[in-house]
Amino acid sequence: MESVIKQGHCAYCKTSIRPVIEAGPHSKTGAKYCPNCGAQIWVKHHCGANIRYEDRYCPKCGEANPIYLGNDPEYYADKTNNEE
Q: According to DSSP H, which parts of 25-84 are helical?
């Protein structure tokens, strides 16, 4: 099963937000939010990396992601093929 994030939907409200997911954080605010529920989708990490809400760690410096979804795949619907 493909996750709702990979399908282009918000993990919180399940609204289609593919443009928000693909766009990256706003150049001035360093963040981007779901236009339907307001959940933060993107953050500009203090090291300069762009991190989405499903990334557990920063790919640049390895620190924990401050907006990480969490570990509840049933609620957040970010299942991998091994968890089906």
A: 73-76
Q: What Cα–Cα distance (Å) separates residue 82 from each residue in 3, 49, 78?
A: 12, 28, 12
* pLDDT tens-digit readout, 32-43: 999 999 989 999
H helix intervals, the chain: 18-23, 73-76
Per DSSP, 40 falls in state E
Round to whole Å and give the CA distance between 43 and 39. Answer: 11
pTM above 0.70, yes or no: yes
Ramachandran class of 31: left when φ > 0, alpha when ψ lies in -120 to 50, beta otherwise = beta
Is residue 52 within 8 A of residue 66, CB to CB? The reply is no
Instruction: Report helix, strand or coil for 38.
Output: coil
